[in-house]
UniProtKB/TrEMBL annotation:
<dbReference type="InterPro" id="IPR040170">
    <property type="entry name" value="Cytosol_ACT"/>
</dbReference>
<dbReference type="Pfam" id="PF03061">
    <property type="entry name" value="4HBT"/>
</dbReference>
<comment type="similarity">
    <text>Belongs to the acyl coenzyme A hydrolase family.</text>
</comment>
<dbReference type="GO" id="GO:0005829">
    <property type="term" value="C:cytosol"/>
</dbReference>
<protein>
    <submittedName>
        <fullName>Acyl-CoA thioesterase</fullName>
        <ecNumber>3.1.2.20</ecNumber>
        <ecNumber>3.1.2.23</ecNumber>
    </submittedName>
</protein>
<keyword id="KW-0378">Hydrolase</keyword>
<dbReference type="InterPro" id="IPR033120">
    <property type="entry name" value="HOTDOG_ACOT"/>
</dbReference>
<dbReference type="InterPro" id="IPR029069">
    <property type="entry name" value="HotDog_dom_sf"/>
</dbReference>
<dbReference type="GO" id="GO:0018739">
    <property type="term" value="F:4-hydroxybenzoyl-CoA thioesterase activity"/>
</dbReference>
<dbReference type="GO" id="GO:0009062">
    <property type="term" value="P:fatty acid catabolic process"/>
</dbReference>
<feature type="domain" description="HotDog ACOT-type">
    <location>
        <begin position="19"/>
        <end position="131"/>
    </location>
</feature>
<dbReference type="GO" id="GO:0006637">
    <property type="term" value="P:acyl-CoA metabolic process"/>
</dbReference>
<dbReference type="GO" id="GO:0052816">
    <property type="term" value="F:long-chain fatty acyl-CoA hydrolase activity"/>
</dbReference>
<dbReference type="InterPro" id="IPR006683">
    <property type="entry name" value="Thioestr_dom"/>
</dbReference>
Length: 182
């Protein structure tokens, strides 16, 4: 993708409240959703995470968005077949054309009502126009304590992402592209 120039003040003027990006998804854990440990398959949860994060990203800028990276997914507690899983997602920070999206995964035991944070995830999305060119995204206005904490700590995560991406590019240059059978 081509680099986009620095935004003018008028281009950066559009702002949205974090709450305008918030979305939820709840699902039951079915027998076909579990792994050999009889807990929710991590790949299934990661699919849910990317799906709801993409919705939050689209709600922020109302244009096409693409996943630039899944920065982290931390599995904290297993999700069992007796649980439901609720994902809450919202934008936490924006750059010029990119946005950080947070996903909180809550497991609820449907028999006892006990709830726990089962996983958390940070993803980065980029806003694109019809020609796949980067677009400027609105600035965010956090309101709740949770939103403010995530917003204030976002620049550190952005710096780590940038460093990790540079290291990944260097590492990719080292890797081969030939198959063993060639």
């Amino acid at each position: 993708m081509r680099e986009i120039p620095k935004a003018t003040e008028s281009e950066q003027a559009e702002k949205k409240y974090v709450r305008e990006t918030r979305c939820f998804k709840t699902a039951r854990v079915f027998p076909t959703d579990v792994n050999n440990h009889n807990t929710l398959f991590g790949g299934k949860l990661m699919s849910y995470i990317d799906d709801i994060a993409s919705i939050a990203a689209s709600k922020l800028c109302r244009v096409n968005t693409v996943t630039a990276s899944t920065d982290s997914v931390d599995f904290l507690y297993p999700i069992n077949p007796t649980d439901s899983v609720t994902l809450e997602s919202f934008a936490t920070w924006t750059g010029r054309s990119s946005m950080e999206i947070f996903v909180k995964v809550i497991r609820e035991d449907l028999k006892t009502g006990e709830k726990k944070i089962a996983a958390t995830a940070f993803l980065t999305f980029v806003a694109l126009d019809e020609n796949n060119r980067k677009l400027i995204v609105p600035r965010l206005i956090p309101e709740t304590e949770e939103e403010k904490k995530l917003y204030e700590t976002a620049p550190d995560r952005a710096a780590m992402r940038k460093q990790r991406r540079e290291e990944s590019k260097k590492f990719a240059d080292f890797l081969t592209v030939t198959y063993p059978w060639e």
